[in-house]
């Protein structure tokens, strides 16, 4: 008996008492989050886990955000920066590089000439240090965050931050093209030598922006 036959056999046995045409009840007794963290502590946990994945984390407020993005791009010195069609224009109001707008006709070769991309996100998961993009207008198509070498992702806190994956799944639309990002693109070979930038950006910078003015 093959592995495929064994797995399918277990599925059939598990569904044997389910009437035809009805969905099997799924037990969801697992924890929806670990601990009882407040909003500020949840954002702190997100920042900690993002940094653990080697993302560079910045904190700012809405007034300072355009200037922070300007400085982050200036440090990298890109000639071109890719922007999704629905990116809030004020985010890039202080930046100098030439903006390249995401277009359906753009080829991977054209995108490869763009050094940086700036996007929003759908939400961020604190317990796993994960950003989720869903292709909304402020995020653009999946490939614009996979080809450029430098990704700046803006997260509105605390509104876009959830504690756990189960909480994230409740808020996400499964029909949308979801991209889950935990740190910059990286892999390692059999000798555990880490290589970054293999199948996505080599550098991920996450900006946690709050509507509240910082002290």
Automatic annotation (TrEMBL):
Transmembrane segments: none annotated. Pfam families: LUD_dom (PF02589). Gene3D superfamilies: NagB/RpiA/CoA transferase-like. Residues 106-209 form the LUD domain. InterPro entries: FTHF_cligase-like_sf, LUD_dom, NagB/RpiA_transferase-like. This is LUD domain-containing protein.
């Amino acid at each position: 008996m093959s592995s495929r036959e064994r797995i399918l056999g277990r599925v059939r046995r598990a569904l044997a008492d389910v009437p035809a045409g009805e969905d099997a009840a799924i037990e969801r007794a697992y924890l929806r989050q670990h601990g009882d963290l407040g909003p500020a502590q949840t954002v702190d946990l997100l920042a900690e886990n993002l940094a653990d994945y080697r993302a560079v984390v910045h904190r700012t407020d809405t007034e300072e955000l355009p200037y922070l993005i300007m400085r982050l791009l200036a440090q990298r010195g890109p000639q071109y920066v890719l922007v999704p069609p629905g990116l809030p224009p004020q985010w890039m109001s202080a930046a100098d590089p030439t903006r390249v707008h995401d277009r359906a006709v753009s080829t991977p070769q054209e995108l490869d000439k763009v050094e940086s991309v700036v996007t929003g996100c759908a939400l961020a998961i604190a317990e796993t240090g994960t950003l989720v993009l869903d292709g909304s207008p402020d995020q653009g198509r999946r490939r614009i965050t996979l080809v450029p070498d430098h990704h700046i992702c803006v997260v509105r806190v605390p509104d876009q931050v959830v504690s756990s994956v189960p909480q994230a799944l409740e808020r996400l639309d499964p029909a949308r093209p979801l991209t889950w990002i935990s740190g910059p693109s990286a892999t390692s070979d059999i000798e555990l030598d880490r290589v970054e930038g293999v199948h996505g950006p080599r550098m991920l910078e996450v900006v946690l922006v709050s509507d509240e003015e910082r002290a």
